[in-house]
Amino acid sequence: MANEKLTKKVVDALLPQAKDYVVWCGKLPGFGCRVRPTGHKTFIVMYRVGGRNATTKKVTIGTYGKITVEQARDDASKVLAKAELGEDVAAERARVRAEMTVSQLCDEYLREGVDHKKASTIESDKSRIEAHIRPLLGTKRIGAVTRGDISKFLRDVASGKTARPKKPGRRGSGVKGGRGTATRTVRLLGGMFTYAVRRDYLKENPCRNVLLYKDRKGERFMTTEEFRRLGETLTLAETEGLPWAFNEGKKAKHRPVRPENQREVFSPHVTAAIKLLMLTGCRLREILHLRWQDIDFERGVLNLPDSKTGQKKVLLAGSALAILSDLPRSGVYVIAGNDPEKPRADLHRPWARIIKYAGLDGLRLHDLRHSYASIGAASGIGLPALGKLLGHNNPSTTQRYAHLADDPLRRASEEIADTIAAAIGSVASEQRAQISKDETSPQLGGQTANAGIS
C-alpha cells in the first residue's frame, strides 16, 4: 500500500481503525490520506524547508468528498514546489489564521474539527458557541486571546452575563449561566484552541492552566424513602390524578367545582418513562427515543442503535419488562407524544408537578440514573460490571461511584469486628445469665442472710 499511488479506488478502500493512521502516496512523496476512527478522511502533505535537518511541517489539503484525490494531489504538488523554493506554506497559513477572530475559529471548528463527535454533542457545542462564546469573545483575534481573557470569560458566564430568559412560545429553558455552564463552555473553548494549535494557527492554548470551577453537575442519590414517595406519587398520578394547586385571588370563582376536574391524570406513557429511567439507569433521550422495534422481549434487552456512547444494549429486569408489556402502543415510539411518528421532546412539565407533590424539589430526571448507579455500586457487583450496565465506554466515568462501592476493606473490617463482637457478646451474655441466676438463688445474697437470722 505504501508504494501504491493514491487513487479514488485506494482511498475508498481505506477502513477506519482504533486510532488515526496515514497512508502515503507511492508516487508523490509527502502526500497522504489520514483516516480517523470515525471514517473521516483528509488529505495532508508533509515537507521540510531548509534541508534534511529542518523541522517537518504538515499542511491539511482538504476533506475527501469535498475535494477529489486528483485535486488534492495538485494542491499537494504546489505546496511541495513552494517548499523547494524556501516558502513555508504552513507558517504563512498560521500567520493568516492568527488574524482570524474567535467567531471565525468557531465556524471552522464546527466545519472541520468535530468529525469525531456525535451529532447531539455537536448541537450542544453550537448552542454554547451561540449563547456564550460569540457574544463575549467572538470579535477578538485568536492570537490576542490571553489566559486572563479566558478567566474573565469563565467568571462572566458563571455570573450570568450571557443568561437570557426563555422566549415565549419557544421550547427549552432559555440561556442559563452558572459555574457548571461556565466550566463546560471553557472546556469547549479549550478544544477549539487545541484544534488551532494542531493546525499551527497558534503556538499555545490560552485555556491551558485556567482554574475551572468544579463541575459536579449537581449529583444526587435518592434514599429508599424518596424512592417510596416517588413511586406512590406515580401511582396516584396515573390513577386518581394529582390535585391542582389553585391560586388565591380574583379568579378563584373560575375554579372547577367538580372534584374530578380538580385533578390531572397523567398519561401512562409519562409515568412509564419515569419508571423505566429508575429501573434501567438509562439516559432520558435513550428512553424518549426508544422504538418498539428496539425491544427484544424474548431476551429482555433494549437494542439501542444510538446513544451518547454509540450503539448500546441495555439488560431489562422483569419489572421493566412488565412495564413495557403493559404499555399501550400508539405509534413508532414507546413513549408516545403528540405526534406518533416523532419522539416526545421532554418531560419538563409532568416531572415538575410530580416532584413537587412528592416533596422532592430539585430532583432531576438524570438523578434517577445516578441513584440507579449508587445502588449498584453499594450492592457489591463491582465497578466494571456497573460500567457495562450504564453503558460507559471509559472506566474512569464509573469511578465517580467508587466511594459508594462495597469496599473489600470495609467488609473485612466488618467481619473482624463482628467476630470479636460475637465473642464479647457471648461472654457478656454468660455473665448476665450468671448474675440473673445469682440474684434469684435462695442460697446467695440477702435471702440467705435473712434465712440465717430467722
From TrEMBL:
One Pfam family matching this protein: Arm-DNA-bind_3
Biological process per Gene Ontology, one example term: DNA recombination
InterPro entries named in the record: CB, DNA_brk_join_enz, Integrase-like_cat_sf, Integrase_catalytic, Integrase_DNA-bd_sf, Integrase_DNA_bind_dom, Integrase_recombinase_N, Integrase_SAM-like_N
Domain of life: Bacteria
Chain positions covered by the region annotation Disordered: 157-181, 430-454
The keyword DNA-binding belongs to this UniProt entry's keyword annotation: yes
Ranges of Polar residues composition bias in the record: 441-454
Keywords from the UniProt entry: DNA integration, DNA recombination, DNA-binding
Compositional bias per record (Gly residues), positions renumbered to this chain: 171-180
GO MF term list: DNA binding
Domain annotation Tyr recombinase: ranges: 229-414
Residues covered by the Core-binding (CB) domain: 100-197
PANTHER family recorded: PROPHAGE INTEGRASE, PROPHAGE INTEGRASE INTS-RELATED
Entry similarity comment: Belongs to the 'phage' integrase family.
Protein name: DUF4102 domain-containing protein
